[in-house]
Every structure is written in structure tokens, then in C-alpha cells.
Amino acid sequence: QRAIRHALINQLRARADDEELGGKLPAALADRLRITRTEANRWIAEAEDLGPRRALTGESLPPQLTATAAGQRRGLIGDGHVAVIRSFFAHLPAAVDLGTREAAEADLAGKACEYRPDQVAK
Questions:
Q1: Where does the pLDDT of residue 79 fall: very low under 50, low under 70, confident under 90, or very high at 90 and above?
Q2: What ranges in the chain are assigned the alpha helix state H?
Q3: In which band, very low, low, confident or very high, does the pLDDT at 2 lie, cut at 50, 70 and 90?
Q4: Within 13 A of 113's CA, how many CA atoms are on the CB side?
């Protein structure tokens, strides 16, 4: 269900402007789904990391957190795990190269499939 939500949010963001939505995307989601704007903003941020993307040329791209998105689609990674993994990358210095980032994300996603979020955080 979350994987579908990520794809839909990313499509809305790419294809609909504020006028069509009746306001900014977080406010439109919050109003229509009757969730808080904080939760709507979290859903949008998660969709950026875990949902399918498009290149400027229109080419389909995988999610930024590919292993985490795959684990979530299989039902092995929950919201708490996603929060821990996204927090890790939010604090990771930009100087860390892409290969190291991908390896770290795969390792964290693997651990998230086996352990509770508080255990993965440690």
C-alpha cells in the first residue's frame, strides 16, 4: 500500500500544479485525506526517497533508497525502519561517495528486514 502511495504522490507532484490541487501539495493531501500537514509532509518526503522517479528526459529511474523501497514493497520494512534509514542518510556527510552510500543503504535495509527499528538504529 505504501509503495502505491509513493508512486501516486510523485505523480501528483510531477503532473498537477497548485491551482489544480487547490493549494500546495501538503495542504491538499492533508485536507483530502484528513491527515495532519506534518504527516502529509512526511509522506511526500518518503515518496521522494522510496517512490519511482523520472529523469528530465522522461526515463524511468529507481527509488533513491532502492533496497529500502524493495523491502517495504515485500512488507518487511515498516514506517519505523524507514524513519531510521532516512535519518541516517540525513546525517551522512555529502562527501560520502555514491558507492558507499548504496552499500550502506543495502546493509541498513537488510538489517531492517531482520530487526526492529530500535535495533537498526543502534
A1: very high
A2: 2-15, 18-21, 25-33, 37-50, 66-73, 79-91, 98-112, 117-121
A3: confident
A4: 15
Tell me, what's the pLDDT at 113?
96
Q: Is the pTM of this model over 0.70?
A: yes
Widest distance between CA atoms in the chain:
44
Residue 84 burial class via C-beta count within 10 angstroms: exposed 0-12, middle 13-18, buried 19 and up: buried
More confident residue, 86 or 2: 86
pLDDT at residue 54, as a whole number: 85
| Dist. CA 23–CA 15, nearest whole Å | 14
**CA 68 from chain center: how many Å?**
9
The total number of residues shown for the chain amounts to 122
> Any long-range contacts for 33-42 (C-beta under 8 Å, 24+ apart)?
none
The angle at the Cα of 47, spanning 18 to 24, to the nearest 5 degrees, equals 15
Give the Cα separation of 67 and 76 in Å (integer).
Answer: 11
| Contact in structure between 105 and 68 (CB atoms under 8 Å) | yes
